[in-house]
Amino acid sequence: MAKDHGSSVKNDKQYEGLRKKGMSKQRAAAISNSPGASKRGGKNSGKGGKKSGS
Fold first, then answer.
1. Residue 18 near residue 27 (C-beta atoms within 8 A)
2. Which domain of life does the UniProt lineage start with (predicted)?
3. Alpha-carbon dihedral angle through residues 24, 27, 29, 30, given to the nearest 10 degrees
4. Residue 48: inside a domain, yes or no?
């Protein structure tokens, strides 16, 4: 189970995952607190640039 990181982190589970990947505490907290953070997928989240047609 994810630890409780206080009221500054809204999504503890996502925060833990980002920290395990080597992300800084500040960056991980910012991402896990952003709107829609729990909806984010990974590579296939449906957001990003278009593929080039070459």
1. yes
2. Bacteria
3. 180
4. no
CB proximity list for 40: less than 8 A, separation 6 or greater: 14
Given a contact cutoff of 8 angstroms between Cβ atoms, the answer to whether 11 and 38 are in contact is: yes
- The reply to whether 26 falls in a domain is yes
Residue 29 lies in a domain: yes
The tally of domains found in the chain comes to 1
Q: What's the pLDDT tens digit per position in 12-43?
A: 889 899 999 999 989 988 888 887 766 555 55
| Structural domain boundaries, residue 25 | 8-36
Q: How far is CA 38 from the centre of its chain?
A: 8
Answer whether residue 41 is part of any domain. Answer: no
Rg value, the chain, Cα? 14
